[in-house]
TrEMBL record, chain B:
<feature type="transmembrane region" description="Helical">
    <location>
        <begin position="241"/>
        <end position="263"/>
    </location>
</feature>
<dbReference type="GO" id="GO:0005886">
    <property type="term" value="C:plasma membrane"/>
</dbReference>
<dbReference type="Pfam" id="PF00528">
    <property type="entry name" value="BPD_transp_1"/>
</dbReference>
<keyword id="KW-0812">Transmembrane</keyword>
<dbReference type="InterPro" id="IPR000515">
    <property type="entry name" value="MetI-like"/>
</dbReference>
<dbReference type="InterPro" id="IPR050901">
    <property type="entry name" value="BP-dep_ABC_trans_perm"/>
</dbReference>
<feature type="transmembrane region" description="Helical">
    <location>
        <begin position="58"/>
        <end position="80"/>
    </location>
</feature>
<feature type="transmembrane region" description="Helical">
    <location>
        <begin position="120"/>
        <end position="139"/>
    </location>
</feature>
<feature type="transmembrane region" description="Helical">
    <location>
        <begin position="151"/>
        <end position="172"/>
    </location>
</feature>
<feature type="transmembrane region" description="Helical">
    <location>
        <begin position="184"/>
        <end position="203"/>
    </location>
</feature>
<keyword id="KW-0813">Transport</keyword>
<feature type="transmembrane region" description="Helical">
    <location>
        <begin position="292"/>
        <end position="310"/>
    </location>
</feature>
<feature type="domain" description="ABC transmembrane type-1">
    <location>
        <begin position="116"/>
        <end position="311"/>
    </location>
</feature>
<keyword id="KW-0472">Membrane</keyword>
<keyword id="KW-1133">Transmembrane helix</keyword>
<protein>
    <recommendedName>
        <fullName>ABC transmembrane type-1 domain-containing protein</fullName>
    </recommendedName>
</protein>
<comment type="similarity">
    <text>Belongs to the binding-protein-dependent transport system permease family.</text>
</comment>
Length: 324, 326
């Protein structure tokens, strides 16, 4: 059979086709695949439509708008024009951008990587151990952590604004009992405050995953270690931690991504202030678009955000390799 | 995080910690131990339970418990006590003259009735639409067989990690162009879309665990694929549908970011938006009255808690897959 005849070359050695002796297919392979799959593809269309409308569409729209000088209102709202890379050039020179990126970094490292991750692991180990011992309070503590998690964000923000109140807040009253001066939480330690609240809100997730992971460690390992005379600390370092390593990487990436996009919580607590002290990149994009009415430049910041997030998402996919 | 695809490469040789398959009976591995402890016949657990430990250990564990309870419950203690006080303060105080009047004022002063109706309509419609959509998509994605499937599935997963706060500016612009602002349709579609990537993966996991001879038998009987899906597969995947319905309702009930940018007419406000505005003292000449907002908060949180804790085993498994913060 002349496999490459169409390319104007001489035929190389004849290639025996595997199905040479088989009866001819009623239709080409592609159409067979289409037949087999068309019902399933139809089943995916509503999802594909909605995802295109609210995820892919906005992302494309955002990238396009970042090349324009579009405004929210006024003459530049309708008659915006293509400005090329001007927004991106401005982004590089933006005096606020280093501050905003640094704030995002502090917020993510403080509340996700150190806070939720470490506290979540600690709570998982504590509850796991307490459960072994059969302590009665264990389910209550578990429920308390979950409660903060299912609580809607706006309510969490409101609760903690009251907790942090300078004159009457519970935090300062508690400090007063031990003769420590009142702290102006949201005024003088705003980043610490939002980090504390985000840890409060998000610890449950890491805890749940670690609890699930601890459960899959075979008990025989511990029994064997105990027979060998390993103490509790030894067993923890040699067996518990290595078994959690893979899960830990995934939890770390996951809480990083969910924390990176945090918006409502910070907005209700400090609204980025005082000054720019808690302005993360998400708030900066919002304020540029809706307070300064610069949708073009706001989109540029959002594109930067998506790019940063994409790096973490790619790392997550690489580590987890989901079964398709 | 979608624990659906978390595979451990540890001592168990790649045992999956999967909420999806875990909902099928007999696989308690994915549930947190506290939930799983009640699973009947969980012999390994019982064997591992060792009561005892010294009094020092008891004291240390309970000290940690006390600190955790204080940290995690104090804001709720304040919310509830403030809601029942005639004049609330910012610190936790047992109400000196407990009253229910705040709950009535919430309806009178914040048009809470309208907001409640809007929220119920939007959340319920979102729940129905999401459940149907992801049940269809999850099944299709599970049975689809072609080479580009991996990329399509990974693409869906990537969308799941996209922060909403990054796309809210374009979504605002798009909704304005399409006339989807201040409308039920717009809010329902947005809230449906938000949870789609994650729940599609979740449902795919459920359907992956359903053996194919079920549907093949139905096809031989002469049912169409759509009818087979509706009559045979949906009943089998009921636990998954429950998770999808519960999570999509909770998500739509709690979501505020999209409502903030899509709604500016007061008769379209939802409960989270009304709460958000009240907590910021918008539209009022006085300072924020803690007891009123707290009462609204209690009314807002109550359905969430009731639904979540009534179905928490299912929900916890499902929620483990969430990557996106709000």
């Amino acid at each position: 059979m002349a496999v490459s005849a169409g390319r104007g070359m001489r035929d190389p050695l004849p290639v025996p086709l595997p199905d040479a002796g088989a009866p001819a297919r009623p239709f080409p392979r592609r159409r067979a695949a289409w037949r087999r799959n068309r019902a399933y593809l139809a089943g995916l269309t509503p999802t594909a439509f909605l995802l295109a409308l609210f995820f892919v569409g906005p992302a494309v729209w955002g990238v396009y708008t970042s090349f324009t000088n579009r405004a929210l209102t006024g003459i530049d709202a309708r008659n915006f024009r293509w400005v090329g890379l001007e927004n991106y050039r401005y982004l590089l020179d933006d005096p606020d951008l280093p501050t905003v990126l640094f704030n995002s970094l502090v917020f993510v490292v403080g509340s996700a990587m150190l806070g939720q991750f470490v506290l979540g692991l600690a709570m998982a180990l504590l509850l796991d151990h307490a459960e072994h011992r059969g302590y009665r309070l264990t389910p209550l503590v578990y429920a308390a952590v979950l409660l903060a998690w299912v609580n809607p964000t706006v309510v969490a923000g409101f609760q903690w604004v009251a907790m942090f109140d300078f004159y009457y807040g519970s935090m300062n009253r508690a400090l007063g009992w031990v003769n420590l001066g009142p702290v102006n939480w949201l005024g003088e330690a705003p980043m610490l405050s939002v980090i504390v609240v985000n840890i409060w809100r998000g610890t449950a997730f890491a805890m749940l995953i670690f609890l699930g992971a601890l459960r899959t460690i075979p008990t025989q390992i511990y029994e064997a270690a105990r027979v060998d005379g390993a103490g509790a600390g030894r067993r923890f370092w040699d067996h518990t931690l290595p078994n959690l390593r893979h899960i830990a990487v995934l939890v770390l990436l996951s809480v990083t991504m969910s924390t990176f996009g945090t918006f409502v919580l910070i907005q209700t607590l400090t609204n980025g202030g005082p000054g720019l002290q808690t302005e993360t990149i998400a708030l900066y994009a919002y304020n540029t678009a809706f307070s300064s009415y610069e949708i073009g430049y706001g989109s540029t910041i959002a594109v930067l955000m998506l790019a940063i997030n994409f790096v973490f998402a790619a790392a997550y996919l690489r580590v987890s390799r989901p079964k398709v | 995080m979608a624990a659906t695809w978390i595979r451990r490469r540890g001592a168990t040789g790649g045992m999956r910690v999967a909420p999806s398959s875990a909902v099928l009976p007999g696989d308690a591995a994915a549930a947190p131990r506290i939930e799983g402890a009640r699973v009947a016949g969980d012999q390994a657990r019982v064997a591992r339970r060792r009561r005892g430990g010294g009094p020092v250990e008891w004291a240390l564990v309970h000290l940690a418990f006390a600190a955790a309870l204080l940290f995690f419950l104090a804001p709720f203690a304040w919310l509830v006590t403030a809601a029942f006080s005639a004049r609330a303060t910012a610190y936790i105080r047992w109400p000196s003259d407990p009253t229910l009047a705040n709950f009535r004022y919430v309806f009178e002063e914040f048009a809470f009735g309208t907001a409640l109706r809007n929220s119920i309509v939007i959340s319920t419609a979102t729940m129905v639409l999401t459940t149907l959509t992801v049940a269809l998509a999850g099944y299709s994605l599970s049975r689809l067989e072609f080479r580009q499937k991996t990329w399509f599935s990974y693409g869906v997963l990537l969308l799941q990690t996209m922060p909403l706060s990054a796309t809210m500016v374009p979504i605002y612009g798009l909704a304005r162009e399409l006339g989807l602002r201040n409308s039920y349709l717009g809010l329902i579609l947005v809230h449906t879309a938000i949870e789609l990537p994650f729940l599609t993966w979740l449902m795919k996991g459920f359907f992956d665990a359903v053996p194919r001879y079920l549907e093949e038998a139905a096809w031989i009987d002469g049912r169409s694929k759509l009818r087979t899906w509706w009559e045979i597969l949906l009943p089998v995947a009921r636990p998954g549908l429950g998770v999808a319905a519960g999570l999509s309702f909770l998500s739509a009930w709690a979501e505020v970011l999209m409502v903030i940018i899509l709604v500016d007419r007061s008769e379209m406000a939802t409960v989270p938006l009304t709460f958000y505005r009240a907590a910021r003292g918008e539209g009022s000449y006085m300072e924020v009255r803690y007891e009123l907002v707290a009462a609204m908060g209690v009314l807002y949180v109550l359905p969430v808690l009731a639904l979540f804790f009534a179905t928490r085993k299912l929900m916890v498994r499902g929620l483990m897959g969430t990557t996106r913060g709000i």
